[in-house]
Design goal:
By secondary structure, this protein is mainly α. It contains 5 helices and no strands.
C-alpha cells in the first residue's frame, strides 16, 4: 500500500472515531438541552449549559480514543476549550437567532442546525489542539 493510501486510511479512521465521539457528546448535549429548555431556562442559556457539558464529554473521548496527544494535557485542554468557546459562540448565536422563529423555538430541527454548523471547524482545530497538525502530512 502506498504511503498516500495509508495516510488516507488513517485519516478516514480518525474521522470515524471523531464522528463516534462527537455523536456521544452530541447525545449528552441534546438530551440535557431538551431537559432544560423551557422547563428551567430559555433556549440560549440552556444551550450554553448543554453545550458546555457536551464539550467536556467530547474532550475526554477525543483525548483517549481519537487523537494522539502531542502536548501537555493541560495545554491541550485549554486550547480545546478555546476552540469550543468559538463553537459555542457560533452555536448560541444560531440558537438565539433561530429560536425567534416560532416554528423553530425548541424543536429538534433547531438542534440539528446548530450541530451541523462547524463540523470541519471542530475536527481540524481539535486535531491541531491534540496533534499539532491541521492536515495529513505526506
Amino acid at each position: 500500500m502506498s504511503v498516500w493510501m495509508e495516510k488516507a486510511r488513517q485519516l478516514v479512521m480518525m474521522k470515524a472515531k471523531y464522528a463516534t465521539a462527537s455523536a456521544i457528546a452530541t447525545a449528552v448535549d441534546y438530551t440535557l438541552y431538551l431537559m432544560l429548555v423551557d422547563r428551567v431556562f430559555s433556549p440560549a442559556p440552556s444551550n450554553v449549559i448543554s453545550y458546555t457539558c457536551g464539550v467536556l464529554v467530547n474532550f475526554v473521548l477525543q483525548r483517549f480514543f481519537v487523537f494522539e496527544l502531542q502536548r501537555r494535557a493541560s495545554h491541550a485542554f485549554l486550547l480545546a476549550m478555546l476552540v469550543s468557546l468559538g463553537g459555542m459562540a457560533i452555536s448560541t448565536g444560531i440558537v438565539a437567532g433561530l429560536s425567534m422563529l416560532a416554528f423553530l423555538h425548541s424543536t429538534s430541527l433547531l438542534q440539528t442546525l446548530r450541530h451541523r454548523h462547524c463540523i470541519f471547524y471542530n475536527f481540524y482545530f481539535k486535531r491541531y489542539v491534540f496533534e499539532k497538525a491541521f492536515c495529513v502530512s505526506y
